[in-house]
Amino acid sequence: MSGTLVLVRHGQSEWNLKNLFTGWRDVDLTEKGHEEAKAAGRILKDRGFSFDIAYTSVLMRAQKTCQHVLDALGQSDLETVRDLALNERDYGDLAGLNKDDARAKWGEEQVHKWRRSYDIQPPGGESLKDTGARVWPYYLHVIQPHVLRGETVLIAAHGNSLRALIMALDGLAPEEVVKVEIGTGIPIIYQLNADSTVASKEIVD
After folding, report:
1. pTM, to two decimals
2. Which pLDDT score, from 0 to 100, does residue 205 have?
3. Which residues form a coiled coil (predicted)?
4. Which of 12, 102, 173, 182 is the 20 to 30 Å CA partner of 163?
5. 160 annotated as a binding-site residue
6. 10 appears as a binding residue in the annotation
7. Quick one: average pLDDT of 122-128?
């Protein structure tokens, strides 16, 4: 057994609540989102977690979620690395649009392809494959070495950046990863072997 990797998707954001495509738009958490993030911290505290380092994106909803978790653990000053490699998928021209309005404009099938397919890009944006192309190298070269040294690492990020990472960790095919749903503020705990393979995975709901 090597180290531990904990993934947490940010709590509900203001645009999650309004059913808007968010992507790289820097929106805040809702009151519920703050509570979800704090609850994730309490869950991890109850399990005796203490982190060696934390990683998050450059977007405030992920950063605030990360901070809530660390505050709950009494680790408010832990070294926290922020990098756009962990940002949410860029939805391009869809960002800021209501998802129902987008369906009315382009059709249910087209919007579904943009949202859930692996390699189809929305106009001016990224596919999940594109998101993975920045998440995977960052994880392999920057984050994974800490885990393989036996450290306990927190990543607070976004639905699609975490889906891309889970795809690699779980060895999912493109048609499998599109079915993966990640709840807001729900810790996902991985124990890794020394060879970087997954020893165990637990979703703490």
Report:
1. 0.96
2. 82
3. none
4. 102
5. yes
6. yes
7. 96
pLDDT tens across 173-190, in order?
999 998 999 999 999 999
Please tell me whether 13 is known to bind a ligand.
yes
Mean pLDDT score, 101-106 = 95
Residue 130 token pair: 């594109």
- Is 197 annotated among the ligand-binding residues? no
Strand partners of residue 189: 6, 202
Give catalytic status of residue 88 as yes or no: yes
Fold observed for domain 4-203? Rossmann fold (3.40.50)
The residue count of the chain comes to 205
Annotated active-site residue in 36, 88, 126, 158:
88
Query: Half-sphere exposure of 170 toward its Cβ, with a 13 Å CA cutoff?
Result: 17
Cα angle, residue 3 at apex, residues 169 and 204 outer, rounded to 5°? 65
- Whole-number Å distance between alpha carbons of 62 and 86: 9
Would you list the domain boundaries of the chain?
Answer: 4-203
* Mean pLDDT for the chain overall: 96
Residue 10 among the catalytic residues: yes
C-alpha span between 189 and 43 (Å, rounded)? 12
Residue pointed to by tokens 């909803």: 61
92, 119 contact by CB (below 8 A): no
The single residue of 10, 36, 68, 158 carrying the catalytic annotation is 10
What is the Cβ-side half-sphere exposure of residue 165, based on CA atoms within 13 angstroms?
Answer: 29
Please indicate if the annotation marks 159 as binding a ligand: yes
Q: Which amino acid is at 96?
A: G
| pLDDT tens-digit series, residues 53-91 | 999 999 999 999 999 999 999 999 999 999 999 999 999
